[in-house]
């Protein structure tokens, strides 16, 4: 086990591909597997900002929701005939939103930043709520078609849940490889330098605000891609996509898994969704249990499941984990 | 549309009542933040508890005044327990951690409220003495709402007197300036933090108790309120009590007046004002730049 984790630590993208290639067969049903991938991607985006740059966004539903509405509106309202363009519209809208909101929020630091991101996400929620012509308002945006995938003239039908899973898998895998590339670049090192000590990074000559803003926009891109994929999975964008509960979910998932670790977001998303799915059989009030578990993690296991595992296994991967 | 003064004045008064709730919540948030640098995300859930406790004690004692007194006390006591057994473990860690913990707590409290009191909200009547309307000369206004304004003003004056005229108040103010120096003088800051957290929570409970007869009690009632109260605190200037009062009243007016002219925009305007204030004065109206960043 320790050797396996160590190998995964050295080749995270390959390890990710191998595990998630067989993942749907480990899950009770395939749609849950797709959901884990999509929310894992959302948490991956959040983790880039929180775990690696040290910025706690409490309104990440904004970019997930913008992504979902971007893809949803492109396919359901504008009737764009290409799945690729539809999917691209999501992260594009999220990136634009992230650039604008990031500009405002990064005027303040620390706790203010967290509260401002939350406030802007709530602003978007109310806007979506009061624009039923564009977003479907309270009923949500309905009728998003899952068009066949056009791959160099080769048409693939995605209607089956396993086909959709593997389509999602490939896109998320590319995103994971992209994140790895970002983290391994000098830019990635600057992010972590800012997380550890922003003033020192600034003294080293880095334009801290610009780097943070770029990290914010990257993070919005991943969250927006997740939102767009989820719009396809559900064929609906509920207005709750933008609600604070969605922002809270991604925070909980990332911390459960381990903020600042590479696999933490996926471990956390899997734990949250599978646990929620099992608990929902027993009680409608399952978020109560998740809330209690989350509080226990903040108090006693701030490194999360993956972070703790990596830190404690003999022969584990090189030191990973949050900066506590 | 009737734009006459007679039509707008009731909106201004309604906005003032909402502003009072904002002020009570924001003062509590700001007090806790100013001294302990803890952002209490569960503030909205405590507001909700205040409303439910009022319903509970009203059913138990059949006396609104007693319920209005007991509910905030209960919420304040709950706050003491939260500080003592949860928040206290997080001092010295990242300032994000108390925010995360109280976020989890608010989820737990909202779900617990649904479990105990049901998913459907409860209604709560104002006491018979305050059931009617008062003729202010230029218009009639519900007596209960005037009562809310009066109670808030009274509580603010009492809080002001406590902070400026008592020894404990002096220590609280000193503690928010320089905790290390206060400690060096041999004062047990842990007890001060406990007290301040309790007072802040009790204020949230009071806001909920006062809101109950106007808005009913339901599990999600604190969610929007806490986010808007955060906005009030940011606009007023974090840790500034005067800022919380001024911004709270201002935001109440923004909502009240927008509700009159363009109801759909009312919820959005609060955030628009926040964005504008941040552009002009990033540290808020009464905020000091650099405080707890």
How would you portray this structure in words?
The complex is a heterodimer of chains A (324) and B (293). Chain A is mostly helical and 324 residues long. Chain A contains 15 helices and two strands. The longest helix of chain A has 27 residues, at 208-234. The two termini of chain A are 26 Å apart. Mean pLDDT of chain A is 91; it is low at 319-324. Chain B has 293 residues and is mainly α. Chain B is 73% helix and 2% strand. Chain B is built from eleven helices and two strands; from the N terminus they run ααααββααααααα. In chain B, strands 1-2 form a two-stranded antiparallel sheet. Chain B starts with a helix and ends in a 13-residue tail after the last helix. The mean pLDDT of chain B is 90. The A-B interface holds A 56, 58, 104, 107-112, 114-116, 118-120, 122-123, 126-127, 130, 244, 248, 251-252, 255, 285, 287-288, 290-292, 294-295, 298-299, 302, 323-324 and B 33, 37, 39, 86, 89-90, 93-97, 99-101, 103-105, 107-108, 111-112, 114-115, 223-224, 227, 230-231, 233-234, 238, 264-265, 267-268, 271-272, 274-275, 278-279, 282, 292-293.
Radius of gyration of chain A, Cα only, in angstroms?
19 Å
Percent helix of chain A, as a range, is over 70%
Approximate strand percentage of chain A = under 5%
The helix/strand order of chain B is HHHHEEHHHHHHH
Which short descriptors sum up this protein?
heterodimer; A: 324 residues; mainly alpha; 15 helices; 72% helix; 2% strand; B: 293 residues; 11 helices; 2 strands; globular
What is the topology?
The complex is a heterodimer of chains A (324) and B (293).
Chain A: H1 2-10, H2 12-22, H3 30-52, H4 61-77, H5 83-105, H6 110-129, H7 132-135, E1 149-151, E2 154-156, H8 161-184, H9 186-196, H10 198-203, H11 208-234, H12 244-257, H13 264-282, H14 286-300, H15 304-312
Antiparallel strand pairs in A: 1-2
Chain B: H1 5-36, H2 43-61, H3 64-85, H4 96-117, E1 133-135, E2 140-142, H5 143-165, H6 167-177, H7 179-184, H8 189-215, H9 221-236, H10 241-261, H11 266-280
Antiparallel strand pairs in B: 1-2
